[in-house]
Design goal:
With about 240 residues, the protein is an alpha+beta fold. About 35% of the residues lie in helices and about 30% in strands. Helix 2 packs across helix 3 and helix 4 packs across helix 7.
């Protein structure tokens, strides 16, 4: 059993396998008064293993089940998980999301090359939380095969949907189009009360946060165009990385 802090929430975890505590090492805190408690039963682990297309261990299945159970509790605290790669630059967070294999992590890495001081808060499963009428993005230890994550947070500035293309261009999209694109990138709670709260938060998110569609290749120009588009910068040309 151990404690972690995610999205400014203290979570008590009753684990069966030591791998989970190792995964959460950067998020561990001393025993404290928890906001909520999670565990995963043997039945849950067996169901996760049986439903996987890959051969996975019980320890790996526990990691998946525990995070899913954390996600189920998050709506009680105005929070949810978003399948995205989030880059922070100059204190502002930009969430890049796309179908698996499209290249959201590749695009995020371009920002690290182009903008000094930028960092990837989480490469796959960050937490989004509404606090003080603003949305913040938080790192988590569940971060995809690349392992990009930091135990930090930043205010969410924009959401960007990525599609591959030969050329680079970005356009702002309305909340209706964003809603159609974002649903596949969210873990929607099965519990009706939690699902209703989740949809309420999603409505606020799409009202408050600007959304964009980026057609891009894997050149550095794609990162510059994305940055300019999401910050309404009209000047011609692109920026050079400071040495």
């Amino acid at each position: 059993m151990f404690y972690i802090k995610l999205a400014d929430l203290n979570i008590k975890i009753d684990n069966k396998y030591p791998q989970l505590e190792k995964l959460c090492f950067d998020y561990l805190v001393a025993p404290c008064s928890e906001d909520f408690f999670v565990s995963a039963s043997d039945e849950e682990l067996n169901r996760e293993i049986a439903g996987s297309d890959l051969k996975i261990s019980k320890a790996y299945a526990e990691s998946i089940c525990i995070y899913r159970n954390i996600c189920t509790c998050l709506t009680n605290y105005n929070a949810f998980v978003f399948h995205a790669s989030v880059v922070e630059y100059e204190g502002r967070a930009y969430a890049f999301t796309a179908k698996s294999g499209t290249g959201k992590s590749t695009h995020s890495l371009l920002w690290l090359d182009c903008f000094n001081g930028s960092r990837i808060i989480n490469g796959d499963k960050p937490i989004i939380r509404l606090k003080d009428n603003k949305f913040f993005v938080y790192g988590t230890p569940w971060c995809g095969k690349e392992g990009f994550n930091v135990n930090s947070s930043a205010e969410l500035s924009a959401i960007c949907f990525i599609e591959r293309n030969v050329d680079n261009n970005i356009t702002k999209i309305d909340s209706g189009e964003a809603l159609g694109r974002i649903f596949n990138q969210l873990l929607i709670p099965k519990d009706k009360k939690a699902a209703d709260k989740f949809l309420y938060l999603l409505d606020i998110l799409l009202t408050k946060i600007d959304c964009y569609l980026l057609h891009c290749n894997i050149s550095k120009e794609a990162a510059y165009i994305a940055y300019k588009g999401m910050n309404n910068i009209k000047e011609e040309g692109i920026y050079e990385k400071e040495e």
